[in-house]
Specification:
The complex is a heterodimer of chains A (262) and B (267). Chain A is mainly alpha-helical. Chain A has helices at residues 2-16, 19-43, 55-68, 79-85, 88-94, 99-129, 137-162, 172-186, 197-205, 213-219, 225-256. In chain B, helix 2 (23-50) packs antiparallel against helix 3, helix 3 (59-80) packs across helix 8 (142-168) and helix 3 (59-80) runs antiparallel to helix 9 (179-191). Chain B is globular and about 55 Å long.
Chain lengths: 262, 267
């Protein structure tokens, strides 16, 4: 536990070291938030409800999604794949520390940094212009728990597609497909409530909704009582599935690993 | 005038040859770019699943904007690259090398990042365009054909100019390269939709000061025979090439100013 804590601190510091990158990211997320907010507001000129979301819900959704985008690290993470490709993974595997545990601890240190420094300000800028929906106190606690689980699901998934590097020399193809599917079905590109009902059903059956749509729905107060416990349990389930599959591929990859030179 | 073009062809030719060395990687990259571009288009379709019109625009008209923006964005990305390697050069001081070579620094930065895989997105845009163009019932007279031909080059020049200016920020904020993303990816996102649905302040800033409205919106108004709901005079529809030239001038001056500000990290 002590070790995990130290690794988590490294994860935090790695990103805290570049304040200008953080400022730039806040600016970009804010700009994207406003563009998307006005596009979706135009939809509400013709109707007052889309898939159970009113205009306030949707605006809140857009800015929460921008706030969470770095926390759950939606865009290409390939550190593990690069370590497999250049052979550094051999060093990692010979350490008395499991690589998956290392990356999980590291990511759980990185995520709070991004949550506080990349997430809060874009949301505040949005709140200066638009009226948002704010959660009740119990929902706020559930939201935080749900975001933690979303980070675990996301890391589990990223670890899994990164470990395809044991079999492919170039993982960019696998990465692109993984990214496309997860961006679309997580609700990052568009709230799942805007989807046609059949596509929404499909999206909720896939693990990716747990990365973005679920925590935001909790913030918006869309789940109560048993349903709330249910969606959080589902996130935990998908986290375990991905981490479990990651373990299996790591074990299989270890058998397969051939290090060139070194 | 001829010499830089020849040099550029040699630089780009070398990069293309190197990219074709790893054929499978290249095809996968191209396919990946093609595929991921569909996510944005799916977003358009999802929106129009819920409404028939966005402002005064129907799905085919927005698809037209989308296709033009995507093609222009992808070709800009192909030609000038994403300028995302040069902040790295500033950080580690290797920008010095560009300064001592007998060619302009901008030319060297632009000529060093030609990635054929970026055609994947352009192909996707072209497919969307081919799919909607027939159903738009455009009256193809000489003026509209001329606009159609000029539109993409003008858009590429505008996008390039905006990216160069945004990229200049890296001279001041060595690790702030992501500022540019708001204008590159953000610009593409904005240009895919009619700008009259934006609020006034965002429109003034992103559409007119950063002239992204001239990438697709105004040329499309003319081709699709639509009126600007904001009541701007019709000649504005034809200003894109002029705006492109002005933007290029501004970008050139800004770049020179920024380079003069450069202090080596001592690479």
């Amino acid at each position: 536990m002590r070790l995990d804590w130290e690794i988590a601190k490294v994860g935090w510091r790695r990103y805290a070291a570049y304040p200008w990158a953080t400022a730039a990211g806040i600016f970009t997320n804010t700009v994207f938030g406003f563009i998307q907010a006005y596009i979706l507001l135009a939809v509400y000129e013709h109707r007052s409800d889309v898939g159970g979301y009113d205009a306030t819900d949707t605006l809140t959704y857009v800015f929460l999604a921008q706030a969470l985008i770095m926390t759950v690290y939606m865009f290409g993470w390939q550190e593990l794949a690069l370590r497999i490709r250049d052979g550094s993974i051999a060093t990692d595997l010979s350490r008395p520390l499991d690589p998956q545990r290392y990356w999980l601890a590291y990511d759980l240190g990185r995520a709070p940094y991004h949550f506080v420094f990349r997430g809060v300000l874009p949301f505040v800028f949005g709140a200066l212009v638009f009226a948002f929906h704010y959660p009740t106190v119990p929902d706020a606690f559930a939201f935080v728990l749900s975001v933690v689980l979303a980070v675990i699901v996301s890391l589990g998934f990223r670890f899994l597609y990164n470990s395809s590097a044991f079999w492919f020399v170039d993982v960019r193809g696998v990465m692109m497909v993984s990214l496309t599917v997860s961006l679309f079905f997580s609700g990052m590109v568009m709230p799942l409530s805007f989807f046609p009902s059949w596509l929404r059903t499909l999206a909720h059956a896939l693990p990716f909704a747990s990365i973005m749509q679920t925590p935001i729905d909790i913030w918006l107060g869309k789940h109560h009582g048993a349903a709330l416990v249910g969606v959080i349990a589902l996130q935990a389930f998908w986290g375990l599935v991905f981490l479990g599959l990651g373990r299996l591929t790591l074990r299989a990859g270890r058998q397969k690993l051939v290090i060139q030179g070194g | 005038m001829v010499e830089p073009v020849l040099l550029w062809r040699r630089l780009v030719g070398a990069q293309i040859r190197s990219q074709f060395q790893y054929r499978v990687s290249f095809v996968l990259d191209l396919a990946g770019n093609f595929l991921i571009s569909f996510v944005d288009f799916l977003a358009v379709l999802v929106i129009f699943h819920n409404v028939h019109r966005l402002g005064t625009w129907n799905v085919r008209e927005v698809a037209f904007l989308y296709a033009f923006s995507s093609i222009s964005f992808a070709l800009t990305d192909l030609v000038i690259g994403h300028l995302d390697q040069f902040p790295q050069k500033i950080r580690d001081g290797t920008f010095d090398i560009l300064l001592v070579r007998p060619r302009s620094t901008l030319f060297q930065v632009i000529g060093s990042d030609f990635q054929m895989r970026r055609l994947g997105k352009a192909i996707q845009g072209a497919i969307v365009l081919a799919y909607v163009i027939g159903s738009l019932h455009v009256q193809w007279d000489a003026g509209r054909i001329a606009m159609f031909v000029v539109m993409v080059p003008a858009a590429i020049v505008i996008f390039s100019s905006v990216w160069v200016v945004a990229g200049c920020l890296a001279f001041w904020t060595t690790d702030g390269g992501e500022f540019a993303n708001a204008f590159t990816y953000g610009g593409n996102f904005l240009a895919q939709y009619p700008i009259d649905i934006l609020s006034v302040w965002l429109r003034r800033f992103l559409a007119y000061i950063v002239p992204l409205a001239f990438v697709c919106y105004f040329p499309a108004l003319y081709i699709l025979d639509k009126r600007d709901t904001l009541g701007l005079p019709r000649f504005v529809d034809f200003l894109s090439p002029v705006v492109a030239l002005v933007a290029a001038g501004v970008a050139g001056v800004t770049w020179q100013f920024a380079v003069r500000h450069y202090r080596s990290a001592g690479g």
